[in-house]
Amino acid sequence: MAENSHEDKLLTAFQKFAVHGDTKASGKELNGKNWAKLCKDCKIIDGKHVTGTDVDIIFTKVKQKTARVITYEEFQRALQELALKRFKGQSQEEALQSICKLVEGQGPANVGVTKAAKIAAVDRLTDPSRYTGSHKERFDESGRGKGREGREELVENTGYVGAYKNAGTFDIKKKTEK
């Protein structure tokens, strides 16, 4: 039974990484990019014994010739290959258990990594109350942008010249002449 729970945790980790970043993924196959991510996030790549290149080579070795993904069975073979490199000096069985412990129950790390920078300089640059010149016209008193009306010279198509004082009086004049 204990062996089965290890198997389940490993499968869960495989599925989490298999669907990472791909909305159409079924969770049954792992692509090369997510395989490399799994190895990095689960600390299989240590920079000494196992590098990113090793991970890529093993991926290519275990997958089908024309395939661009690996199945769960191929994933297990890849872990066996990596186990001996990562845990030198351990028997194959011990190394496999050690590498499985690294992966079990893990998921992709980096959800929500991008955070907006809150720096005083950025706040100053994005504070519309400090704008001068033509840019000042782009915002209302509350600091909200006015959209097009703040950026473009909107033309009134009335037929009158811009500064003409008697605009709109043509019809009135015509009536008084009769």
From TrEMBL:
GO molecular function, one term: tubulin binding
Basic and acidic residues bias locations: 134-153
Keyword Cytoplasm: yes
GO cellular component labels: microtubule
Biological process per Gene Ontology, one example term: positive regulation of protein polymerization
Record keywords: Cytoplasm, Cytoskeleton, Microtubule
UniProt KW Ligase keyword: no
A Pfam family per the record: p25-alpha
Cell location: Cytoplasm, Cytoskeleton
Segments for region (Disordered): 128-153
InterPro entries for the chain: EF-hand-dom_pair (IPR011992), TPP/p25 (IPR008907)
Protein family per UniProt: Belongs to the TPPP family.
PANTHER family documented for this protein: P25 ALPHA-RELATED, TUBULIN POLYMERIZATION-PROMOTING PROTEIN FAMILY MEMBER 3
Protein name: Tubulin polymerization-promoting protein family member 3
Organism: Oryzias latipes
Gene designation: TPPP3
